[in-house]
């Protein structure tokens, strides 16, 4: 009976199974169904539309190769969080390398184009400050507060224990208070 069902009506795990066997329509449906989700997570992580689009595109490319690794033990979206955060971290490392190169050759140009957070929006200031957190703290804040998922789900995405997620949140809150406090002083 499932063979008669249109691809667009299939559950994610059925789409994954079909996509693994080379069904391009199933793969395209997975991409269509989840691209907005991936883009939204990426945008919350980096707050830059172009970078979020780059991250989302990278996830789509990685998805084609990585579907074989999806075990189906958890939700497909949990696995997509991992792929998206991995792509975001890759982009951040790439940008950090580019920045180091730019510093070596063009120190005077580093201050150009740096925008301060919009003080009229407290939430924008918090998210801007969150981008300066260490990666695991930033991921925990994004998943818990940005995506609204539980500590248990965040632990699965981050491949750690719930208590570790809680610790990252605790440390992030302390750092955010400090970072936002510094903004108020300057």
Describe the structure.
- By secondary structure, the protein is mainly alpha-helical.
- The protein has two domains: 7-114, Rna Polymerase Sigma Factor, Chain: A (Orthogonal Bundle); 118-186, Arc Repressor Mutant, subunit A, CATH 1.10.10.
- It has eight helices and no strands.
- The protein has helices at 12-20, 24-46, 49-66, 76-105, 122-130, 135-146, 151-158, 162-185.
- Helix 2 (24-46) packs across helix 4 (76-105), helix 3 (49-66) packs across helix 4 and helix 6 (135-146) crosses helix 8 (162-185).
- The longest helix has 30 residues, at 76-105.
- The termini are far apart.
- The relative contact order is 0.09.
> How many domains would you count in the coordinates?
2
* Count of helix runs: 8
Strand content: under 5%
User: In whole angstroms, how far apart are the ends?
Assistant: 65 Å
Kindly identify the CATH topology of the largest domain: Rna Polymerase Sigma Factor, Chain: A
Could you state the order of secondary-structure elements as H and E? HHHHHHHH
Name of the CATH class of the largest domain: Mainly Alpha
DSSP strand count: 0
Tell me roughly what share of residues is in helical segments: over 70%
CATH superfamily of the largest domain: RNA polymerase sigma factor, region 2, helix turn helix motif
Overall average pLDDT? 79
Shape: globular
> How large, in whole angstroms, is the Cα Rg?
19 Å
Helix/sheet category: mainly alpha
